[in-house]
Amino acid sequence: VTHGIPACIGGMTINSKQLDNESPISIFAVNKCYVTVQEGTFFDGSGFAALVREGYKVRSDVNITLEFRTTAVHGVLLGVSSAKVDAIGLEIVNGKVLFHVNNGAGRITATYEPRGTNSLCDGKWHKLQANKSKHRISMIIDGNLVQTDNPYIQSTSADTNNPIYVGGYPADVKQNCLTSKNSFHGCLRNLVLTKGQQAELFDFSRAFDLRGVFPHSCPGAEH
């Protein structure tokens, strides 16, 4: 077994002596247990999850779906980049969701701005789908479609080869399709990347690097 248990553990005794959970000698990737808990992964706003160590290749087509819940108006959702300019990125900036794609010829952005008082940063779950199909990009949030024109119709493939960074990224990592450095604070669940007929659900507890991220444990209310 190479990864920790996604659970709450309490009342542990060894040789009839109760262990003190409140003042451990050291602690790593352990959060407190919540009175009310929801399915999802909690991001505390300080770090990120890194998936696919060998690098994820976006190429011509990818469909990303996820659900998010936050009260913060800024935060990185997801980024996949290359050493060159090719990249994709999803982020929340000033309460809007931006989906950036660069197939090598220039960055294109689809922007979803909630109407009126319909905030995406209200602490409730919102469903996001971002789709790149060759040079076309679109986004559906809570059933609302936004798309954008791409003048670079000859450039169709985002030749990425870096890991998928979710909720943020390390300071020494370049992300060509993210404008924000703010780590996401809130909860994410049901992250699926689909290429053709191949859909892959990503389990955050199997990330190769987790900082400030607590898989399978989402507080029922902001704490």
TrEMBL record:
Laminin G domain boundaries: 38-218
Give the matching Gene3D superfamilies.
2.60.120.200
Q: Which InterPro entries does its entry note?
A: ConA-like_dom_sf, Laminin_G, Neurexin-related_CASP
TM regions (residue ranges): none
PROSITE patterns per the UniProt record, alphabetical = LAM_G_DOMAIN (PS50025)
Record-given protein name: LAMA1 protein
